[in-house]
Amino acid sequence: MFDINKFLEDREKRVEYQNGLIERFNSPLLTIRANYPGENKWEDIPIEITDIVAKEVELYFTNEIVHREILENLEGKIYLFILKKSAYEIKKLMIDFEEKHILGRCVDIDVYNIDGKGISRSDFNLPKRKCLICEELAFICGRTMKHSHEEIKNKIASKYIEYEKFLREREKIVDNLANLALEGMIYEVSSYPAFGLVTPLTKGSHKDMDFFTFLDSSFVLRKGFKKMAEVMYSSIPLEKAFFLIREIGKETEKEMFEVTKGVNTHKGMIFLLGIAIGATARAIYEKKSFKDIQQIICKMTKDILKDFENIDTTKRLTHGERLFIEQGFTGIRGEIKNGLDIVFNGSLEIFSKAYKESQNINFSSLHTLIYLMSRVMDSTIVYRHDFKTLENVKNEMNRIFSEGGAFTKDKEYFEKLEKEYIIKNISPGGSADLLAVTIYFYKCMNLIF
Predict the structure, then answer these.
(1) How many domains is the chain built from?
(2) pTM for the whole thing?
(3) How many C-beta neighbours within 10 Å does residue 207 have?
């Protein structure tokens, strides 16, 4: 039997406890509990919804959670988060969450400042929340009991079902995107000849890896790319989502090194394809067109060159970091800062036209690789040699491409050039990564959008 006095006592104790947490940590508090009618707050659906929302809200505040705990009483299951962030910034994010997330209206998300005062929508000159069922203000419907408890519960249940449907749709989409990313990587490494890159027929200019090393690595990366797509297929603010997928990228990189026994097969690819698949997932989530992907990349990576501001020189530097310190060379980050313009307004069209005419993936990949090598400021070539070698490669490939590329030269010509590049220990790794991204976007453009 429901005990109203015990319920009120639990609520009073919770408020007192919350104030104690705020005072203890001298930081804002965020609470999450189900917005569920009736006496029993422990039915399956409100508990499940509270858990889901709490898990997703945590993603908004990665590295900003100072303290986290769960209270359980007659009010139901209540999540408490002490956050190292402005209470007003927290509330602004949560208002956005409540309005955009399918389950946002099914929970109460409260934010309290360090003085214990709650931050409300009115502090942002926003109207009070509307009723879950009708367009009336929620507090008016509640006060007049316009809707029965059963009616409200049924609406919440329908929201939960809608969310489950969303999860099934997301699973199909992110799984598809991860597969296309995998295809892009496999197609790139399967192309021959490739001017010093690893191919099915040769190790190229590499002594520590072969075609099968790349295959092992590629299949491991698929899982990471899928996780990145899941994060981006959401309403999480773009800047935060980009931070999260970079963290996933670091874990994916560790898995790569484990399977390759320390060999760097795809470090640059994880970075590039991670951004590509993330931007694609966000475009699909927001129901935008393929053309919008480039703009999303620009927005999510607007501060990408800040990576160079705090380089830890005591750690092992990447090719790109070392070249930036020594030469001010921005490399692939510079390409990303421009929204991968070399792909969207260059290699993608080159590949598409070549494939339309030849109906041959290998031919199209070779032709596109020549184009990319003629234009990309490839850090792999510079790291192995110097800027003079890079300019020589770009000039040679530019001449070949201007003469018609793969359309006017025979296979023997490129196989001979391939051997020369291997002898010179040249490997256009940056161009290879961009080729894989190009193939990925080509498939997205034709199969998804």
Answers:
(1) 2
(2) 0.91
(3) 8
